[in-house]
Amino acid sequence: xxxxxxxxxxxxxxxxxxxxxxxxxxxxxxxxxxxxxxxxxxxxxxxxxxxxxxxxxxxxxxxxxxxxxxxxxxxxxxxxxxxxxxxxxxxxxxxxxxxxxxxxxxxxxxxxxxxxxxxxxxxxxxxxxxxxxxxxxxxxxxxxxxxxxxxxxxxxxxxxxxxxxxxxxxxxxxxxxxxxxxxxxxxxxxxxxxxxxxxxxxxxxxxxxxxxxxxxxxxxxxxxxxxxxxxxxxxxxxxxxxxxxxxxxxxxxxxxxxxxxxxxxxxxxxxxxxxxxxxxxxxxxxxxxxxxxxxxxxxxxxxxxxxxxxxxxxxxxxxxxxxxxxxxxxxxxxxxxxxxxxxxxxxxxxxxxxxxxxxxxxxxxxxxxxxxxxxxxxxxxxxxxxxxxxxxxxxxxxxxxxxxxxxxxxxx
Length: 412
Hints:
The protein is mostly beta strands. Helix content is 8%, strand content 41%. It has three domains: 139 residues, no CATH class; 191 residues, no CATH class; 34 residues, no CATH class.
């Protein structure tokens, strides 16, 4: 399927060089790619989503390769002329070129500005000149009340758009709107030539022991579960909820099925479905829930199917910290602030180095989910010799060494 080319409608809040000035109150937030070269860029405070028709200039890489960029701040500062702290809002991977697209806020020329940059595996950073790209915008209805704030200074409109997912010609938009049932899930056909379908969402939060209608979905993905398109949604503190897409009709109040409580005191960052080959070469499918304050959760598609077929959770958890529902495998993805499915082999992340504070753009091999170069262990000593029984470990570690840019460390 090829997306239609967009007519040239320059977005009113995009200024030259792809940098948006604060006087026009933009803030480029959640990013999502459609098929091929369409990039959706949200502005939650303005309640808008803009589709940019990127130039079709890239070619697919010859092979899947890991990102190993250990100081993104320095690269981005040089490219955009940032002064001081950079706030990274989201990460998306171009489906053809595999370049990383990042939305950010920074102080540039003494003014707070927003930008989208493209970063390649070799560390090249370019500002995406949004003003020069054909685009079309969509304005959401019934956006959050500007008079409502959280923790004194966090405006409710900042939660108008919390996540995007493009599936089968539709853009799914989670966030909050006005009204008693603030949690909202929207469906918008693309191109933007029709009305939006808006549903209010209710779910049972077992860690809180109550039904909730206000807190928004924070991360989601639309996944085919036994032939049924299903929204798999993660909320703060951390219920995992499923919602059949067919239930999302305009004006409907939908009660999702809570299939898990993954842990308290956490904000989920991304819900990433993917498939990968196992050690025997068979393809297996999973859902990865990347979290901000705790380990990531890996869920097999078999476990997800069983959970969707179950009655779901309806009772409070027995004690604070209990995890219940769908079976998950914890993964050591610490310090991650954004994640995206990169390609057949890798998950791409932006993460903070816990020692230096540097922002990194690094890939994790699917099936491993850790970077060998993060550790110094028994295997790293120069006189270590792999036993005959450990040859599989040697080959696995050699693969990770090559991924992470240490071919000189490979042990033959």
